[in-house]
Model the fold of this input.
Amino acid sequence: MSDASLWDERYRSADAIWSGDPNPQLVAEVAGLASGTALDIGCGEGADAVWLAERGWHVTAIDISGVALERARSAASNAGVAERIDWRHGDIATWAPERSYDLVSAQFMQLAPSLRDTVFRSIAAAVAIGGTLLIVGHHPSDLETTVRRPRMPGVLYTAEEIATLFDPHAWETLVQTARSRGVTDANGIPAIVHDTVLRLRRRQ
Done:
């Protein structure tokens, strides 16, 4: 996850790696929130950041791939929201947020457990009091489907596992679930996957 050259190579392998649509669990969890400031961790080609900016959010979006960020900037410009997004080129394993945000979103950050725990705690520290932390990932049950997933069980996680990282006195749990959705695998065969969804509100 922390090799910029590998990610740049992956993005160069196709005109677009992702669909261009915002992540569905981001839409489900954030659509009803009042807009404010947001931090998009691992923003990729920028679909989430653009979606947030179109709804009035001021977004800081970070990714390790310069290739992805160029595509993201283009998408924001085409959508007319370039002025609402601050793009940052950096490695989330070492980058530390400089301020607090009303929303911090980490979508499908599939990291080794030791690094994952460090990163999630670090980004959680950037959530303002009363703000939202949204973590979405691939659920371990996806390994039982035909859908392509990292064949390293340790990088998949449940909401219950991630919730243990956070002090319940400091955080209110709003959503802690494995949410199903229909997809098609690489051969066009329908499948059901489950997204780990953890949504917390900072109390203090």
